[in-house]
Specification:
Elements lengths: L1 H25 L2 E6 L3 H5 L9 H8 L4 E2 L6 E11 L3 E12 L5 E6 L1
Antiparallel strand pairs: 1-3, 2-3, 3-4, 4-5
């Protein structure tokens, strides 16, 4: 009788530990930094119609600005997904304005 109680006790302990480890590692951890949803916000900008104030309203202040040319702005977003291994995604957006302050060119890497 003691052997069967000990067996059930060990079995429930092992099952509980196994299920808790499995549930913790199953949920992916996603950490992001920079401008969130950069690709979706970029779709809201129209070439020639969006000016610097609209870009600041959509994306905030630029992460990087060139010192020699204030018309080149850069925004960055980094997403790390940790599930069974690390996956890291970087998205960099470059915006170039023309002299009348409208968006001239948008490209991302």
């Amino acid at each position: 009788m003691f052997k069967t109680l000990k067996f059930f006790k060990n079995t429930t302990l092992i099952t509980t530990c196994f299920l808790s480890i499995l549930s913790c590692s199953y949920k992916p951890v996603i950490a992001s930094s920079g401008v969130l949803n950069l690709d979706k916000r970029t779709d809201l900008m129209l070439l020639g119609n969006t000016n610097k104030n609209d870009v600041i309203r959509l994306l905030g202040e630029a992460t990087l600005k060139e010192l020699s040319n204030e018309n080149k702005w850069s925004y960055m977003q980094t997403i790390e997904q940790k599930k069974f291994g690390k996956k890291k995604f970087n998205l960099v957006l470059f915006i170039i304005f023309i002299t009348n302050l409208n968006v001239f060119h948008i490209f991302s890497c």
